[in-house]
Write a structure and sequence with these properties.
The structure is a single chain. This protein is an alpha+beta fold. The protein folds into two domains: about 110 residues, Phosphorylase Kinase, domain 1, CATH 3.30.200; about 200 residues, Transferase(Phosphotransferase) domain 1 (Transferase(Phosphotransferase), domain 1). The chain has a five-stranded antiparallel sheet with strand order 1-2-3-5-4, covered by helices on one side. A three-stranded antiparallel sheet has the order 6-8-9. A two-stranded antiparallel ribbon has the order 7-10. Pfam families: PK_Tyr_Ser-Thr.
Amino acid sequence: MGCCLSALEPARLQLLGRPDAELPDADDALSVESLPPGAVRADVPWSSLLHRRYHAEGAFSQVFLAVLDAEAVALKILKEDAAENELARRDLEHEARLLASLSHRHVVRLLGCGTHSSRPFLLLEPLAATLASSLPKPFPDHATICEHYAARARWPRRRAASVAVQLSRALRYLHAECAFAPLLHRDLKPDNVGFAAAGRVVLFDFGLARESGAADDAPRALTGKTGSTRYMSPEVALCKPYNSKADVFSFATLLWQMLAHERPFSGMSVSDFEQKVALGGHRPKISSSWPPQLQQLLSECWEVDAHKRPPFVQIVPRLEAVLRDLTLPADVRARANA
């Protein structure tokens, strides 16, 4: 049996063996010339970043919080042991060029970039928390009913719907509106969704994001097994051609987690995931107590046939309607549904 998904939560694309067609341009450098004019501050001196303190890390980079010109920033830099990893470096530079050309209130903002000890770094807008750190944690079997109720009260359906609406707007922008559209994020998961000021939802970590390469968003032979396994679409898990509908599947799994207060496919091994989910069509249980519109949307987004999954230009208004309904007072909702 393969490793448990919990052990591979941060599992990402294996850099070695990636098709050359998908690699960022090796000739591009993280410099003033490689970024849109006036878009961000380039060549930021390392010495100007004050009060640096460790915050988090991924497979190839670390994130620090710092202060630049009296403003808080998030500093993302390659790890020392990844400094000579050319593909990791090119991924970070690729992320910088993408973010420099993206502008949406629910997509993380690139504020600047630079180099320290031959390691490129990005300066991003700071976030107060991530969705992963905000969601209720799984309870042990001996947890009381009151503990379960308190956790669920912090994440009511209305809050889940609000986060889903904002995140879906970001994905609609990437898939249908930005200069690179359709741009696939390819690593949707709670760890890559954050909260900025006033609870604004922000999608970040574009290290694996890639242009579809097809104006009609036709499935393309991009690298399989890209992203985090428990949120991966069947076609990506099975290394088949895919398009933006892979993000739709991942989004639905994330939405289910917000509604169910459980981790999807918990305890399932990678081999089990491939057999039961990717090949067998197994999906998380949809509660009959959830709004019918959400039940239907989840089912559609989890279709085995990616062509049958709705695009985000359709998902956004459907979620907005759900949120409006959930925002109504309980008695008004009851009369409307009578």
